[in-house]
What does this fold into?
Amino acid sequence: MSLRKSANLWAIGLTLYDMIFGMAPYEGDTDAQMYSKLITFISEEEWPSILFIDPWHREKTEALKFIKRFLLLSTLTRITWHEIEENPWIKDEWHKVHLR
It folds into this structure.
């Protein structure tokens, strides 16, 4: 996969994370802070806790599994477009949209 496509997938992962959890996985006021937080995020993999009592627990848990595949450091192990289409979290919806 080209670096460009892989970077786009990383950006999609960040967007999905923000949409599902209401915050970015890492933030900073300056480029240096952002870079530092990115390195911490990658090395420590600080994922949000999803409470069992959350009415969206099942959906958020499945979404987080999906999002983690986007936010892998190695472009060789990061999710591919084909894997996105086949992922159980969105597979049915993906095919509905594709049939339109």
